Amino acid sequence: MEKGLPEGGRLSPLEWCLYIADLVNNLQRYFPHISLPPPQHLIFMAIILFMDDLCLIAHSPQGLLRLIQHTQNWYERNRCLLSFSKSKVLAFFETPSQNHSRSHLTWRVMTHFPTPTYNTFNEVNFFCYIGVMLDPTLSFHNHCIMLISRIWTGLASLRDRLQSVRSPSATLLFRLWQGRVEVHLPSHLALLSQPAQTTRLQSALDLSLSFRVPPTSLTLLKLDLELPPLDLLTQAALARVHCHLQVLPPDHLAHQLFLLRTSYPPRPHSLEDTMRHALLALGWLHDWDDCSLSLAIHRRSPPHRWDRTYSRSL
Question: Residue 303 above 50 pLDDT?
Fold first, then answer.
């Protein structure tokens, strides 16, 4: 776009929403079948937007190609440019027979300006979208590996920082460790619900903390600093997600999806199943049908300091 508001301006998000709404309405008019049941909710899922990033979703490869071509045509009419080098294709939960049936398909889209040209998209096995590493089965194993690499990168940055600090105190060491190493984990714990992933992250976190602390003193140090184990932090993160989905407006997409998914028995290892187990582990839920969390649970007397830490975070 050659004209518009500066990036970071106060009116930029509103102007962008008004501008991109035409694309959403256009796709909803031509692809109304890409939605989730039941029909009365009208959950349109062909496009998901986050700021200037968009994600296109279709039921089949042929449908995704039509969806991408339609989006490219809208971009050309509105003098926008679609970045083909940054755009990726990722197939979720595809069976071997489904993959074989589309072996002849190529991800090519026609652009008409300035000259008619075919542009190709790359299909990948995993892709980092808005800071989350997605994989075909949504196991988030690659995301766990990415978080561990961030822990080591933050630890290397911390060691470089400490070279210019003479005799740092224990409090300063812990604060620097929190700001450069531990900061990468809290916002991602709700995704890593498998115990093996939490164990790997806990081992990497303990190892990063032991660069100045003897391994035999780690347990006492974490108790003294009120640093809860990651499995408990994961359960609290899932409980926060549950509470947040409940208080959203009824017309919010996330709230409608939450009501839709919780209207059926939870599938094993699904998000609603992990939220249910987290609430049961925290003693806040006795039945999945009881989805009301009163403020009284936040005022109860915690039996030990891990609960006190969690009550403050919640």
Answer: no
